[in-house]
């Protein structure tokens, strides 16, 4: 009789009754996110799969660029929408005009102290040409758009099936970018 009762109750109800945590189902990691980088601040491993199921705005950044002030808008966007599932991912790069010459620590300090950046950032990396990291090569291949300058953006939907590229001229508060972010945030992942 107890066994029948336990089966009817179900595992999740039983765990709740016992006060045990119910394991959260993690979304499957799309192949696009199957990359790992070093974290900018401390060099710890930063697997992109941890962002599966999120809407991701990927931006190659630089500290000494005319577009550097976009950090402020990116942080504002992240703070406003992170609870709805948006992640902004910064990829510092010295590929364009050598406008990111500093060390990882210098970049991290600059971003934090100047713009209050809290969104995740990877260690300095290459985002263009044959030496570009594999993630950026995939983004360029899937969109047909490679970064032409700092602050080029890629917006990825929750399941990685849709990617939209935006030039450096598209600011974080651009109505077209915001509209697409809202669209992706309201779409369920596959």
Automatic annotation (TrEMBL):
Protein name per the record: Glutathione peroxidase
Please report a single Pfam family linked to this protein: GSHPx
Q: Which Gene3D superfamilies match?
A: Glutaredoxin
Q: Which UniProt keywords apply?
A: Oxidoreductase, Peroxidase, Signal
- In what residue span(s) does the Thioredoxin domain sit? 14-186
Q: Which residues form the signal peptide?
A: 1-25
Q: Which GO terms describe its molecular function?
A: peroxidase activity
Family under the similarity heading: Belongs to the glutathione peroxidase family.
Where are the membrane-spanning stretches? Answer: none
User: Which InterPro entries would you find in this protein's record?
Assistant: Glutathione_peroxidase (IPR000889), GPX_AS (IPR029759), Thioredoxin-like_sf (IPR036249), Thioredoxin_domain (IPR013766)
Q: Does the keyword Lipid biosynthesis apply?
A: no
Q: Say which species the protein is native to.
A: Azonexus hydrophilus
Listed CDD domains: GSH_Peroxidase (cd00340)
């Amino acid at each position: 009789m107890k066994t029948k009762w336990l089966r009817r109750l179900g595992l999740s109800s039983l765990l709740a009754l016992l006060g045990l945590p119910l394991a959260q189902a993690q979304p499957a990691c799309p192949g696009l996110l199957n990359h790992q980088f070093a974290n900018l601040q401390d060099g710890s491993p930063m697997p992109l799969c941890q962002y599966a199921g999120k809407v991701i705005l990927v931006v190659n950044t630089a500290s000494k660029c005319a577009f550097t002030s976009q950090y402020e808008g990116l942080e504002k966007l992240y703070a406003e929408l992170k609870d709805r599932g948006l992640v902004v991912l910064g990829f510092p790069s010295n590929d364009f005009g050598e406008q990111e010459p500093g060390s990882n620590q210098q970049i991290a300090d600059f971003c934090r102290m100047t713009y209050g950046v809290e969104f995740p950032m990877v260690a300095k990396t290459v985002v263009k040409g044959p030496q570009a990291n594999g993630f950026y090569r995939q983004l360029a291949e899937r969109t047909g758009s490679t970064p032409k300058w700092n602050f080029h953006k890629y917006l990825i939907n929750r399941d990685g099936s849709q990617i939209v590229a935006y030039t450096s001229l598209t600011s974080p508060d651009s109505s077209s970018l915001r509209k697409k972010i809202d669209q992706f945030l309201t779409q369920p992942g596959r």
